[in-house]
Amino acid sequence: MTTGDNGPLPDSGQGLGISGDEEMMRLVAELYYLRDRSQSAIADLTGFSVSKVSRLLAQARQTGVVRISVQAAPDTLDEVAGQLAAALGIEEAYVTPGRGDDPAAASRLCAVAAAPWVAETIPEAGVLGIAGGYTVSALIDALPPVRRAHLTIVPLVGGWDPATPHLDINELIRRAAERLDCRYLLLHAPGRLDSGAVKRALMRESTIRATTEYWSRLSVGLIGVGGGPRDHPGYGTVMDRVSERERRRLAGRQVVGDVVGYLVTIDGTLIDDPWGDHTIAAPVSDLRRASRLVAVSAGPHKVAGIIGACRSGLVHTLVTDEPTAQAVLAHLATRPPKRGRRRAATVAG
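The structure assignment produced for this chain is given below.
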């Protein structure tokens, strides 16, 4: 008799050598993938522990005993991406499957689906700037581990918020650097200050400048698009840091969202407002010099903000989901874009 993790197994006449292990992988994989048995049921059948069943399934994938493929996304998503880039006047768009009924779920699903594609856009070397938010946070967690040893990651905005991790920019930077195995710098400064004078004084501090000097060297930016002042998407946003009176004031100024800390209207105007005077963020001039700014944003409440951000000329690449893309196209069908940097010649797919 041979012994499994949980008891005796029928005697095969020899211990589990390499070939025996492979046969067990095949059997466990067949039970799991072809016969729809759960791992606990397989453990009962074989006498293995559930953890050993899990290990055998993992080994089966690693050694090629099991090969898993996923059907490619339909060409219709590529077509929507091309239409979206052209309508917004940006270089390219990438569209994922999604759902339009829940803003938080839409953001997370878009981020998870787009993460492998976004990882391929991150350069081997240079400076990657990140502006935090709910969708960008989900994207960072979903990035496949890759090595970018000659890359430096820096925050594009200030902000710490232990109670709302997706708005804690330094925590996001650390997590991104861990996924990309690269160097990073932190920005020990709040996102919003009490006055412009305090902001200007803080920006002169050597510890702050050691990070912000990288803004002028920005290669690629990974950013989100914030919703409007009237939106309550079910997760914490920068708008939650201001009073209801301030929200009404911003809505009265036709603000539909924010991009890298700058308030934007639907026609793409980055408005001059005390909000910006009190916000620590990379200068617009530095953002415009970047070779690529990738905006990742999805959800029914982001439609106007996405249009405004793309019309501002800051965004080169938009990543969103199909329901949001269709909603943007529907809006633009009656109100064509007035501004934009470049029209897309190719479609990311």
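Interim note for the steering committee: Residues 75-334 form a domain with the Rossmann fold fold (CATH 3.40.50.1360). The chain has two domains: 2-63, 75-334.
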